[in-house]
Amino acid sequence: MRRALDALYDGAAWLAALAMIGLLAMVLLSIASRQLGFHVPGTDAYAGYLMAACGFLALAHTFKRGEHIRVTLILLRLKGRARRALELWALAAGTLLAALAAFYAVRLSWQSHLFHDISTSNDATPLWIPQLSMAAGSIILLVAFVDELVLEVQGRRSHATPDEALRNE
């Protein structure tokens, strides 16, 4: 199960990296088209869609690697049961928030599909298509939070040392 979850997080990160390459391509195409006197419609909109995909698809991988910003001022001073209780509370709250975000991201994408919502830009893209990356990234983040919560309950979760925590604060 651990391999499958890690493959899920890594796969989402690779998709985020591909979206970032696509974002670069859209920006370069937009710049080149302005300089060379032609217009490619939709490059700004697609750059925005790809930027959202980059952010959402990388969330779980970043979280699992301990790269999200955490306020550890209190946490590092606590020991034993108090620290474990605070970790459990934080992971439970994060799981709840990730579940809400995933629910509403999926709902938004589904409603955009039902209502045939399209971009107001000149590309007229059905919005449910780029919203899928937001929904998928939110679901994968929820899976990562549940994963961390289960590991913490089982006592198998690794914690950052004070030196490690300083690199992302």
Provide a descriptive summary of the structure in words.
- The longest helix has 35 residues, at 2-36.
- The mean pLDDT is 89.
- The chain has five helices and no strands.
- The protein has one domain (2-168).
- With 169 residues, the protein is mainly α.
- Helices cover 73% and strands 0% of the residues.
Structural domain tally: 1
Helices, by number, come to 5
> How many strand units?
0
Major β-sheet annotation: none
Structural class, by secondary structure, is: mainly alpha
Unreliable residue stretches: none
Mean pLDDT: 89
Shape: elongated
Share of β-strand residues: under 5%
Beginning-to-end CA distance, first to last residue: 31 Å
Organism: Rubrivivax albus
Subcellular location: Cell inner membrane
Domain Tripartite ATP-independent periplasmic transporters DctQ component: 24-153
InterPro entries: DctQ (IPR055348), TRAP_DctQ (IPR007387)
Characteristic key phrases:
169 residues; mainly alpha; 5 helices; elongated
